């Protein structure tokens, strides 16, 4: 290969962005609530992470759950797109599906237009809504006409390592769009993903933070979590470094 695939790390904080930068990431995707699949971060968080120096792709997703969004939610996310770009995002990560599982091209177009309304070039990535679509390869084939930069996908499988065939088919179906493999990716998976044609790999490289509570504990959100599970994820620098080595080895 003449160039190694890009390494993107999903982070939730400036500390995570530093760990990514110091251990060889090419860019970061910023969100909050990784444990919910990721949600839109605040403008202040975008500013802080952009200040760490790596290009920042910001997830714009206004709520957890399915990717079928009504008009009010799309209007809100269009405003979030404009906000995070104004706060320093190098790109946005967007997506929406129709109730029958097709790519919602009307909603995606509106969000992409909001991104392009800024006075500088921005990347526009379709997020993993594509993996819950009825036909991920068919959805990928629509992306060149929509002007999107890249797509983050596991090939419609539980993990990208299990979706290799679909990832390869997406590469063929979406010329000019960077297919980025993500979803349960471990550094050991990277050679097979790049062999399938992925131009980038995406890892959360996450570890559970040790709780720092000094008092008692009561559940504050959805039931089922124990005191030990009720924490947040942080970026593991060793996993980032291992992923960088795997990317370099595939050059």
TrEMBL record:
<dbReference type="InterPro" id="IPR036822">
    <property type="entry name" value="CutC-like_dom_sf"/>
</dbReference>
<dbReference type="InterPro" id="IPR005627">
    <property type="entry name" value="CutC-like"/>
</dbReference>
<protein>
    <recommendedName>
        <fullName>PF03932 family protein CutC</fullName>
    </recommendedName>
</protein>
<keyword id="KW-0963">Cytoplasm</keyword>
<comment type="similarity">
    <text>Belongs to the CutC family.</text>
</comment>
<dbReference type="Pfam" id="PF03932">
    <property type="entry name" value="CutC"/>
</dbReference>
